[in-house]
Amino acid sequence: MTQEHLLEARGLTVRYGGIEAVNALDIYVDPGETVVVVGANGAGKSTIMNAIMGLVRVHAGTLTFSGKDITRASAASRAQQGVRISPEGRRVFANLTVEENLLAGGYTMKSDERAESVAWLFDNFPFLASRRRAKAGTLSGGQQQLVAIGRALTSRPKLLLLDEPFLGLSPVAIATTSEAITLVQEQGTAVLISEQMARPALKLAQRGYVLRSGRLRRSGEVATIRDFALSEDYL
Ligand SMILES: Nc1ncnc2c1ncn2[C@@H]1O[C@H](COP(=O)(O)OP(=O)(O)O)[C@@H](O)[C@H]1O
Ligand SMILES: [Mg+2]
After folding, report:
1. Which protein residue's CA is at the shortest distance from atom 14 of ligand 1?
2. Which residue of 109, 193, 195, 205 has the fewest C-beta atoms within 10 A of its own C-beta?
3. What are residue 20's DSSP bridge partners?
4. Ligand 1: residues within 6 Å at CB?
5. Mean pLDDT in order along the chain per 10 residues (235 residues)
């Protein structure tokens, strides 16, 4: 038997009514690996992320996580198994504090483990500690991105899905977010990042896929797809 991928999508196809948003994609992520999905607006990036998280229905194909078929599993079950998402547009709970957002990310955990996890986040992300009592809605976009990543990390996932984490961020916030992602990588967590603006994501990833109109156009080591991926920036 070949070595098992952490996540494997085979023939992944998602439709919205008559529209085929992603078509027969083969994608995998290995344990501890960072992989980027690059594509223009409407290419199908969020659809892939949401299909992996269980937020949209898979029309055809299969999703396997840690050797288990999760194609029809609920989002809650996938979360329990170790998949988490920081969604496009971040979508933190604006009326909750930073700390409450982080605790919310650990809703499936025992309370002592959850408290331990949030303490770890405060130790490792000083910004989160310094603003723990601030309402998340009062923070800047880059700061909210850190909250969204932190919230996804509370449960110590095996696979973190980041849907356009750099979208609309300033260069400084892109750098801060990149550092946070590096820390996630150091924990051994696998990361799947989608981006239209490929440059910062390519710096973090080992491997990537270039998506156009719901189909894979290129895949491979970052060094081999970099030029092609960057040319997509301007489509
Ligand atoms: N809820 C939806 N209903 C109908 N079409 C959708 C829906 N969400 C996305 N689409 C379409 O699916 C395609 C892929 O969208 P999306 O996955 O959001 O792309 P990306 O994240 O790369 O911008 C686009 O053509 C988009 O218009
Ligand atoms: Mg999107």
Report:
1. 44
2. 109
3. 15
4. 16, 19, 21, 39, 41-47
5. 84 95 97 96 97 97 97 95 92 95 92 95 94 96 93 94 93 92 94 94 96 95 93 65
Measured CA to CA, the distance from residue 207 to residue 37 in angstroms comes to 9
- Look at ligand 1, atom 13, and give the residue with the nearest C-alpha: 21
Q: Which ligand is nearest to the CA of 37?
A: 1
Asked if residues 109 and 121 have their Cβ atoms less than 8 Å apart, the reply is: no
The pTM of the full predicted model, rounded to 2 decimals, is: 0.94
Q: How far is CA 139 from CA 133, 146, 172, 223, in A?
A: 11, 10, 15, 36
Taking the C-alpha atoms of residue 220 and residue 98, their distance in angstroms, rounded to an integer, is 37
CA–CA distance, 115 with 101 (Å, rounded to integer): 13
